[in-house]
Amino acid sequence: IAATQPSTDWHLKENAREHHTSKFSSEELIVRRGQAFTITFNGAEQPEQNLIFIAETGPKPSKATKTLATFDISSTLSKEGWSAVLQSSSSSSVSISISSPHNAVIGRYRLSVQSGSSSPQSLGTFVLLFNPWSSGDDVFMPNAAECEEYVLEEFGIIFAGNKNHISSFGWNFGQFQGDILNICLAIMDRSLYYRQDPITDVSHRHDPRYLGRVLSAMVNANDDQGVVLGNWSGKYEGGKNPTSWTGSGEILQSWKKSGFKPVKYGQCWVFAAVLTTVLRCLGIPTRTITNFSSAHDADGNLRVDEFYDADGNHLERGADSVWNFHVWNESWFTRNDLGPSYSGWQVLDATPQEESGGIYQCGPASRHAIKEGEVELDYDGPFVFAEVNADCMYWNYDSATGKKTLIFSKSTEIGASISTKAVGRDARVDVTRDYKYEEGSAKEREIFKKARKKLGLEDKFDPTAPKQEEVEQKPDISGKFKVAGSLEVGKDLNLLLVLENLQSDAKTVNVNMTAWSTLYTRRRVNQIWKDSLSVTLAPKEEKQFPIKIKYPEYQQQLTTDKTIQVTALCHVKDGIQVLVKRNITLDNPAIDIQVLGEAKVNKEVVVEVAFTNPINEEVKDCVLQVEGSDLLQGILELRIPPLKASEKSSTKFKLIPSEAGPKHLLVNFFCDKFADIKTFKMVNVIN
């Protein structure tokens, strides 16, 4: 053993700048694969020609699994394997440029050097990540602005609400903050795949397709004590309400602090946002996608069945459901297993909905394959295809006789306004056309039939050859709910039921109406209101019936998702039933952020947040939560005194920004009457 342990200069600043890793705050070298980095060390006894380097990762490194590399100094850097080139040397130190292959396993490496016949000496550790800036990498993304957004941007916008009324909220991904990288490496080492066979698992970590699938399983707690525990009950005791989170950092830190116990609670956007953080941190370009009127097809027949009773109540029958919205991820990488046309954006979904290969994981499914109906290609094509494209069947179910009657079917209901955040700006981009051909077009129906055929379904249900109970008759009347006035929590809800007689003779109609508070998954929680009316419509006549649901009637019943489903089941005398329904998402009142003065690095700046109580009663238990990467550490929580009816509160606090550039401040305000009023503000920090 040599007398002196070599000391290593990792050139942290220069290497980080070259490798797009400057945003990490780490004393350890973090570099990207397929690209050279420079280190300097002293204490090499032998001439540098005799130096041999050893880079190794994982529990039992070996050359066979590509988790161990030995390489000496050569005249040029290799693209194929690990290599080293001498930069400069003096009597006391050596500077070396080291390069890894484009398809190297990612993770934490141990680096040592051996000279002559002496034993290897450790130089320390470094972390190797995916490299979307390098053309040989599976995650290579040629557009620099997209790399900036999908790998380096720590702020995101997630779209929610419903297809008639899209809302959005900010999210702090925070992939470069504090200890997040170490937590992401720990997530990989806690997966079922690693526990069953650590050596094989680590050897597959060169492949974004493999890691995307493994991490889609690890972000949910099912099967593997993963990061977030899902809860769609509407009751969130013992944990945080899923709507109250504003960033991934708090969730990932809590998971680690608790000794890796699942964090309570998440719903789809929480799983998707946490997966975005983890994949961006590791260097895989990733974004969140929101699909409106998203189908959860539990039985794999590309169709969703919904059941209603005679009063128009939506019944919890069968495992299929349609959610107002659902959020998943797209990650960017090549599909060498499928061929070049299937490369690019891949769908991953960490929300535990259905098992795949025996555990709750979903994807990667090539977005191109989904659009073309090629549902047999890996992975989970049928489930993702149904999410954006299933047909809807609405049934009347008589619980006394068990008889079901088709009310109507709709092929254009599912998969609307598929949305993601724009590159480099805070706006919505519609990507529906990337998932399917235009609804109602011949091409779209052709692809739907192609997908059914590939799944062997063409005989079970084909709209062109329906079974007896599935014959759709033409209705005599049509109906719809119109919104009259604003949709705001704290205000009365005003609707119009519009009924039109389509026939040239008069029709008598009995209408049973209900309103239920629901979750965003349309799961019913509390009945708010019910009513019925009888009407005779003259030939071709249209009539409007005003409906008012007062704030006190719904206030106690509303869930934190602020969603209400209104249905009217119209029983036409001597005709078929007509179902009229509408899902309504209420808006929270507004909250306002002002930055008072210029935001400068390491200088205090005051921020003011204002909220006016819009209702005629006092609100209490008011809390303001603030977070934002590079603007403040962790989460600031401020208690606010109760507010009387119509009273305005103004709260001031100080920030000390730590880095220049456009940063986002996220605010969440909640009290006993309003859940999670969110907003965000872009703060331009100058040096």
TrEMBL record:
Molecular function (Gene Ontology), one example = metal ion binding
PROSITE patterns in UniProt: TRANSGLUTAMINASES
| UniProt keyword ATP-binding, yes or no | no
Kindly state which keywords UniProt assigns to this record, in alphabetical order.
Acyltransferase, Calcium, Metal-binding, Transferase
Necessary cofactors = Ca(2+)
Instruction: Tell me which residues bind Ca(2+).
Output: N389, D391, E439, E444
Recite the UniProt cofactor note for this protein: Binds 1 Ca(2+) ion per subunit.
Provide the reaction this enzyme catalyses. Answer: L-glutaminyl-[protein] + L-lysyl-[protein] = [protein]-L-lysyl-N(6)-5-L-glutamyl-[protein] + NH4(+)
Q: Could you tell me which InterPro entries the record lists for this protein?
A: Ig-like_fold, Ig_E-set, Papain-like_cys_pep_sf, Transglutaminase, Transglutaminase-like, Transglutaminase-like_sf, Transglutaminase_animal, Transglutaminase_AS
Q: Which residues form the Transglutaminase-like domain?
A: 260-352
What the record says about family reads: Belongs to the transglutaminase superfamily. Transglutaminase family.
The molecule here is called: protein-glutamine gamma-glutamyltransferase
Origin species: Cardinalis cardinalis (Northern cardinal)
Gene that encodes the chain: Tgm3
